[in-house]
User: Fold these one by one.
Assistant:
Number 1:
Amino acid sequence: MAGIDVNITEDAERQPEDEGFDVKIKEEAGQEFEGFDINIVTPEDKGLSLPGVTPEPELPEPQARVKLKIRKTLDGSFVIFDHPDIDIVIMPQMFKIMAFAKDQMGDHIYATQSRLFDFLMRRGTVVLDSVQGGNLYGSLEGNIPPVSDPNIDPIDVAIYVIAKFIDEEKPYYDREEKYKDDVDDWMLEPEDDHSTDIDWAVKTHQPRKGVQNRWPGSAAAYGLTGMYRA
C-alpha cells in the first residue's frame, strides 16, 4: 500500500467555507492502486504557527482529581456544597477559607467547623493562629498561608485537602442517613409482629378505654367542679 504525505504550508490559502481539498494522483501505465494512506502534516506538527493563530499552551497532567459540588462566584471565590452540615467557601483574593452553617445552628455545627479547621491545620493548609469566628453569625474562618514554591497553587491544594476532609466525614453521615431511613421504614412499613391490622382494630377497640371517664360528671367525684368558679 502506497503512502502520500500532504504538507500544508504557512502561505497556503484557506477559506472558511472550505471543508476539504482534492488530492490528484498520477497513475503510471500498468500500475494499480488498491488503496493508500494519506498523512497530512500541518505547520503545528512541525512546531510552526499559522499567521494570526496563537497555539494553545499544553496543560500539564493533573497530579490528583477530586469530585465536588462546587461553584465559582462572580468575585472568583469557590463554594463547596458537599458537606451535609456546612458550606465551605475558598476566597482566593483574600487567601481565606470560611465555613458557614447550611440551614440550622447548634453545637454540632460548631463541632463540624472545628473538625474542618483542625484537619486543615494538621495538613498545613491554614495558618495556625488565624482561625477565628467570622464577621457573619455562626461562621468560622482561617487564612491560607503563603507558598514558598511558585509552582504550587495554594487554592488547588486547599480544594484538594477539603475534598479529603469531606471523604473522611462521609461514612459518619451515611450511617446517620441510614438510621433515619430505618426509623422511617419501621414507622411507615412495620413488620407484621410490630403492627396491628386496621380492620381488626376497628372492630375490637371500644370508644372509651383504660382510665378514661366512663360517665358524664365523673370529675365531680374528685371535687373538681368548684375549682374554676368565678
Number 2:
Amino acid sequence: MPKFCIHEQHAGVCEKTGGYCSEGPCPYEEMVDYAPVVHGRWQSYESSRYVGADDKGNPKYRNIRIYYCSQCGHCSIIRTKGCPNCRAKMDKEETNELDKREG
C-alpha cells in the first residue's frame, strides 16, 4: 500500500527545506498508510417541528425527516453522500425503524 506524508497540505513546497517537492513520499516526515474507507447508511425517522405561528397566533408544525449516521449517530436534515462528522461513505441502503416492521 502506498505511503504519503501526513503533512501533505504544503501544496508542493516542502515545509522542512523550503524547496519544491516533486517526489512522492516525503523523506522528512512520518509515513502513514491510507485511512480505511468506512461505509455507512443514513437511517431516518419523521419528526414534527415548530415552524412559527399562523395569522391568528396559533402554532404551526411541519413534519420533517431527520437522518442519522449508522456509524456515529450524527443527525442532519440533509442527506449527503458522506457523514460530515465521521466521514463515512454513505453507499449502503437507507433504512428506518418502520421498514423493519413485519406485516
Number 3:
Amino acid sequence: MRTTTRNCPRNSFIIKSLYLKLMSDSPVVDWEAIVHKNVRSKDMADVGNVDALETDAIVVITEGARGEFRIPKTQVEAFDGAEVFLKSNIAELKKYKV
C-alpha cells in the first residue's frame, strides 16, 4: 500500500516556510516570532531575551533586567524557533548596550 503526503497541510506549511527562508535575505521570516525568545552570542553565551522590536533593531534585556541592548537586525544570524543567534560574540555586544 502506498501512502501519499502530497496534500498534507503540515507538509505544505513546512515547504512554504523553507521556501520563504531560502528566498529571503533576512535570517528571520517572522520577526514577531522572536519576541520573548532567548538570545545567544556567536560564542554561545546567553545574552538575554528579546523584549521588543524596532524598525531596524531588536531590544534584548538581560536576566533580571540588569542590562539592555539595542542590537541591529543585521547582527542576527539565525533563529531556530527557540533561540536567536547573533553574529557577534559577547565582548562585541558591549557597543550595543543602552
